[in-house]
Amino acid sequence: MRPLTRTVNQLLPLLALFLTACITSPSFDYTAFRAHKPRSILVLPPVNKTTDVNAPYTYLSTITQPLAECGYYVFPVAVVDAYMKENGLPSADEMHGVSLAKIRQIIGADAVLYVTIEEWGQKYIVIQSVTIINATAKLVDTATGTVIWEGKQSVSRGSGGGGDPVAMLITAAVTQVMNSMVDYTHDLSRQANYQMVYDPNEGFLAGPYLPPTQSGHCGTN
Predict the structure, then answer these.
(1) 27-122+131-155+185-206 architecture in CATH?
(2) What are the residues whose beta carbons fall under 8 Å from the beta carbon of 194, sequence distance 6 or more?
(3) pLDDT tens for each residue of 18-69
């Protein structure tokens, strides 16, 4: 029995290492984020790949608060949108094409947050009604063009009927009618942005306008 016991004892560290590797999700590489240390962020209107024309402005209305609470100065999104349009850039695609050097020179932002909305709004999937928001984002340093952070946002809100197909069908139909009267995307957008900024593993690092005692990720303070 001793050789067997010795073999088991030798395998235990390997097993623990294997389980740790399986359980622990890789964290985002913050080397560039720490190197550039942005103080101010300009959020451009998102590129909208959906049919909901209100999606970009609903998104914009929910992004400033979590970034500001994380310790960054955020340029007023409505003012930036109006300024861009007044200067011959009526669409988000055109705004995203503005050179970083121009943004830094004219507006003075340390970094720009680019967002693309992939999915937005209600979907009726067989016997389930679901409201979905999917978006991707990247934070780019205006001085060097370096992508210092990037992430994804994905939240949904759905309803069924507890396993009974008839009940699920009725519940989904009622939910669809209610969703047509009440727009849940604003709340979901707020939730998505807070998750994006405050994710303890892949969210934003604490900004310079937080107290010195608050460092690391915003989600861990």
Answers:
(1) 3-Layer(aba) Sandwich (3.40)
(2) 66
(3) 444 444 444 678 999 999 999 999 999 999 999 999 999 999 999 999 999 9
CA distance 76 to 147: 22
Kind of pairing between the strands at 147-159 and 128-141: antiparallel
- Rounded Cα distance between 208 and 73, Å, is 9
Handedness of CA 156, 186, 51, 88 (dihedral sign): negative
* Buried-state track 155-171, b at ≥16 Cβ within 10 A, e below 16: bebebbbeeeeeebeeb
Q: Are 154 and 134 in contact (CB under 8 A)?
A: yes
Place of tokens 């999104």: 77
CA distance 210 to 98: 30
